Amino acid sequence: MAMILTEEARMVRDSALGFFRERSPITELRKLRDSNDPVGFSRALWAQMAELGWTGFLVPEEYGGSAFGIAGLAQVMEAAGRTLTASPLLSTALLGACLVSTAGSEAQKSDILPALVTGERILALALEEGTRHAPHSIALKAQKDGAGYRLSGRKTFVLDGHIADTLIVAANTGGGTTLFLVPSTASGVARTRLSMVDSRNAANIAFDNVAVGADAVLGPVEGGAAILDTALDYARAGLAAEMLGSANEAFDRTVQYLKDRKQFGVAIGSFQALKHRAAQMFCEVEVTRSAVMAATAALDQGGNDAAALVSLAKAKANQTFFLCGNEGVQMHGGIGMTDEHEIGFFTKRARVAIATFGDTVFHQDRFAHSMGY
Amino acid sequence: MTDLATFRAETRAWLEENCPPPMRTWMPEDEQVAGGKKAVWKRPEQKIWLDRMAAKGWTAPTWPKKYGGGGLSNDEALILEEEMQDLGCRAPLRGMGLSMLGPVLLEYGTEEQRQTHLPPIIKGEIRWCQGYSEPEAGSDLASLRTRAVLQGEHFLVNGHKIWTSNAHHSDWIFCLVRTDPTVKKHDGISFLLIDMSDPGVRPRPIRLISGASVFCETFIENVRVPAGNLVGELNKGWTIAKRLLEHERKGIGGIGARQAAKFETPVEQRAKQYVGEVDGRIADASLREKIAAYNIDAQAFQLTRRRAAEEAEAGQPPGPLSAMFKYYATELNKRRYETILDVEGFQGLGWEGDGFNDDEIRLTREWLRAKANTIEGGTSEVQLNIIAKRVLGLPD
Ligand SMILES: Cc1cc2nc3c(=O)[nH]c(=O)nc-3n(C[C@H](O)[C@H](O)[C@H](O)COP(=O)(O)OP(=O)(O)OC[C@H]3O[C@@H](n4cnc5c(N)ncnc54)[C@H](O)[C@@H]3O)c2cc1C
Questions:
Q1: Tell me, what's the pLDDT at B258?
Q2: Which positions in chain B touch A267 (Cβ < 8 Å)?
């Protein structure tokens, strides 16, 4: 029964929905944006999220987590997506927790994970280098230097990279990809905060001959690609859940507007041109929900169809969020174009979320590949 | 072993013993068995298989035993379906009696109507067709005009039905008729069972774009129908009509599941045959993306069907999901055939004769037949209207 929520997951969902509605409605994101907040999310909110245990869902119990799993975390992500909440859920509770838990040494795990669970430590994956998601083409060099390494190169679109305490850097060590844990304060690290269209947080980061010890290597040397593949799948599934929440919210708001707004003396929702498009959006939201549930369940159960299901879910989430964001603006008419109205925030977020960890073409191709064609 | 596990094992054994090997092969559309007095048997095994299944009541697995049905629980029926699918067994019998009329008689029929009509449906002795649509009443079905006037013990029926699938192969027709023309259109409709052996019922086949003749226009002239053939109350037929449509749409919404899963060549495999492969991948990248996009949607839809089934099993009330099945399944099925024709290139363009193999001709014909999926049983536009109204609550 992978396609219905467990009792526990339902409780997480309900409390997360209430939490985000109350503590971080979209007005909070607007405040962060308009005040040019240097952090870009609310540390107080993040501490509360940590207190609720959400940061530890992918962390084993011996390091302070609950190992509740990705299907549970997806409930939190989806709820956060409904209010477009900016937080390090993706960078830290998903990617950071997953990478360190699966690949970290004992010392690395006890150093990082407990602090991650309490919300004190923010992590960021420094992966991308080009103009789109390409986890297997890494140019940033890590050269052997005595017992340690020296890192040189550039990373882009590093989520929460401007504020992270620890960077997980994917580097080319000649014969493959190796992951490194690098303190963001290390000498030679230069961070440029990006101002993104969705008012969320990312940075470009330059590494100029940054020295790290051998103990900075995360997982086996040149074993980074496989570790990344798995962790990225968790991130993609979690992000797909967030996008589902955002798409569903944009859709719900649009349907409500169709009932409220009157033209020609009637509610615009009585016009069939709009009705049919709304009904089509409904279908797309529902099939996307099924895809996301199947993907997270497969990850939790360690099914060997997980990669294909994750790509399926991310591809559907991309298409559906794109559709609901754009239809949302169109069906709101002029008011949908104003900054004052919130529907436009969804379209902006959709573009960024779609590009994150693989756009639709990327995941269609990956799906085909994993299905043997 | 639990009861269900025992049932599965016994069912499996029975099927292996009783399903003739030729009935475990891919069933082309023209070998579907619908029974009736005019049935044509292409192979003797079709009749053997039907009779064996009917004797167990498994042509109608969940119908009560007292009418000759299987009396199975939903769980058992699912197991039977799974085991049949796993062995590649053909459906022994299909048709509107099983999928539409029977469920409606079980819900609305009198005991006498059930005793009379259900057993011959289960045994495949009587074939039914559906007299809903008329030349002036398609999507706006409730505007139908076929008139039935109650005269003592009989209705006198006059009218003109159209798009009546397989009327020329059928024995009986269930009809929507107007019994009160003076009231609001939905309030003057009745549901009537008519024996087609009456010479006043005349079906005339119509040829489809696929070349097949699966439907007819059906003329009904001065036909006397016993009053006892009225299902439900007089002028209350619209409720029954809609319930029957739900059963019909559920059937159409299930397109592509069942036997196809075991026998049909996946689109991507065809693509490798027709455009070649490089490093194990379909050589043409844009075709590959197109196929992946289709497969992703198709799988997301199958997952949604599974979700609905699991929700139902967990005892949750039927949610809004079912409203989308007919729409989504039929649009996908059309897209599937378009994708197959894209894959085949010139070879997908044959009508008959040399230069094309049987499979190619079949697919071209099926491509055309599939166009009807989004029309029959309520068009896609009508399904979207229903979702907008019932699920989203948008105003008229
Ligand atoms: C292969 C096949 C088998 C069939 N078998 C049977 C059968 O056995 N028995 C039977 O009774 N009928 C049968 N039908 C008939 C079928 O139910 C009707 O064709 C269908 O309901 C549409 O009616 P119509 O053909 O009159 O089209 P119309 O209703 O005239 O529709 C024409 C177009 O207008 C659109 N349209 C109509 N109303 C609206 C609206 N309110 N909003 C938006 N768009 C609208 C439709 O979607 C369609 O695109 C069959 C049809 C086919 C194709």
A1: 53
A2: 394-395
Which residue bears the tokens 């040494």? A105
Residue A231 C-alpha to ligand 1 middle, in angstroms? Answer: 50
Domain A225-370 CATH assignment equals 1.20.140.10: yes
Task: For residue B225, report the phi and psi dihedrals to the nearest 5 degrees.
Answer: -115, 125
**Given this model, what pLDDT does residue A143 score?**
98
- Which residue in B2, B216, B257, B39 sits closest to B130, CA to CA? B216
Give me the half-sphere count of Cα atoms (radius 13 Å) on the Cβ side of residue A32. 23
Homologous superfamily assigned to A124-222: Butyryl-CoA Dehydrogenase, subunit A, domain 2 (2.40.110.10)
Chunked mean pLDDT (size 10), chain B, 396 residues: 91 97 90 95 96 97 97 91 92 95 97 98 98 96 98 97 97 98 97 98 95 92 98 97 91 64 87 97 97 97 91 80 90 96 97 95 94 94 96 96
CATH topology of domain A7-121: Butyryl-Coa Dehydrogenase, subunit A; domain 1 (1.10.540)
Q: What is the largest CA-CA distance in chain B?
A: 77
* Residues in chain B closer than 8 A to A287 (CB atoms): 297, 300-301, 303-304, 328
Please tell me whether the overall predicted TM-score, pTM, comes out greater than 0.80 for this model.
yes
Q: Verify whether the Cβ–Cβ distance B313 to A1 is below 8 Å.
A: yes
Nearest to A290 among B291, B300, B394 (CB): B300
- Protein residues whose CB sits closer than 6 Å to any atom of ligand 1: A 272; B 129-133, 138-139, 163-165, 215, 372, 375-379, 381-382, 385
CB contact under 8 Å between A255 and B272, yes or no, is no
For residues A249 and A327, the answer to whether their CB atoms sit within 8 Å is no
* Domains A7-121 and A225-370 fall in the same CATH topology: no
Q: Using CA positions, which residue lies closest to atom 51 of ligand 1?
A: B376
The CATH architecture assigned to B253-391 reads Up-down Bundle (1.20)
Catalytic residues of B: 248
Residues in chain A within 8 Å Cβ distance of B296: 312, 315-316, 364, 367
Domain spans of chain A?
7-121, 124-222, 225-370
CA distance B247 to chain A (A): 20
**What is A130-193 written as a DSSP string?**
SSS--TT----EEEEETTEEEEEEEEEEEETTTT-SEEEEEEE-SSSEEEEEEETTSTTEEEEE
Interatomic CA distance for residues B166 and B180, integer angstroms: 29
Burial of A51 (0-12, 13-18, 19+ CB in 10 A): exposed
Interface mutation target, options A290, A311, A361, chain B, most CBs of B under 10 Å: A290
- Measured CA to CA in angstroms, residue A147 lies from A140, A212, A215, B143 at distances of 19, 9, 9, 86
Sheet strands (E) in chain B: 128-131, 147-151, 154-165, 172-178, 189-195, 201-206, 215-226, 230-231, 277-278, 281-282
pLDDT band at A1 (very low <50, low <70, confident <90, very high): low
Smallest CA–CA distance from A315 into chain B, residue: B296
Residues of chain B with CATH 1.20.140.10: 253-391
Confidence of residue A40 (pLDDT cuts 50, 70, 90): very high
Architecture of the domain made up of B128-235 = Beta Barrel (2.40)
- Which neighbouring-strand residues pair with B164? B216
**How high does pLDDT run on average in chain A?**
97
Q: Which CATH class is domain B3-94?
A: mainly alpha
Which H helix or E strand runs over A202? strand A201-212
Torsion of CA A268, A270, A273, A276, to 10 degrees: 120
For chain B, give every residue range classified as CATH 1.10.540: 3-94
What confidence score (pLDDT) does residue B321 get? Answer: 81
pLDDT digits (tens, 9 = 90+) for A191-244: 999 999 999 999 999 999 999 999 999 999 999 999 999 999 999 999 999 999
d(CA B212, CA B198): 26
pLDDT of residue B301: 95
